[in-house]
């Protein structure tokens, strides 16, 4: 019995890593590109000074940015180090993994070529990103990053090097970033695999009998399963006969913004107090928004 459960845990663990690593690689290479090719002056031209407009513009940029939640944290960290305001970075981080075209199309396919689910998912994600980013803009100042010094931001000024040197620098930064976030991915994948192995889905289904409870259960399930946002809609669609549309949207939105591996990456990047507030705000707005659906 033990050997069977351990084999199942190992299989799930490896499958999560195989699913996540390509997106982490994409994320760290984009992070390296931002470090070497994007200057602070370029960012200053794109991000408005007004707090709300900065959040709004960053949310729109995130919506056009095909990034998974597995790789979005290193991208946001690099943007913050380049001078992007925290509230704009968070709005970008919350919309990027959910509203991008790849995720919305996979949601459309998973739910039988119907547009209501991708529209609900994209709409609620955008609203949550705007609300959370706006609150963050008033509550927190500074980048809230844990350790700026270890990221070598003092060297490699983008505008003063040849293309070849910038490209080599991009690869070096990508490698450093991968090993920085990779340990959190491995730990998170293992915890998620253990939860899927030893926590029975039937137990969660029994808990979610009322409307409000079903939304909370699906949010908890999304956190535990730690699926990449490009694939989670196919799992959500399997619960259509059991859960309401609103609770499925809660699963699709909350899981793409917060899961085990993503939480560990955030804890390894941002101050713990900030992360806790961020998770609470996301959970509250996703829960209320999904109930309204």
UniProtKB/TrEMBL annotation:
It is found in: Cell membrane. The chain crosses the membrane at residues 12-38, 50-76, 88-111, 123-141, 178-195, 216-236, 248-267, 274-292. One of its GO terms (cellular component) is plasma membrane. Belongs to the UPF0718 family. It is a multi-pass membrane protein. This is Permease. Its main location: membrane.
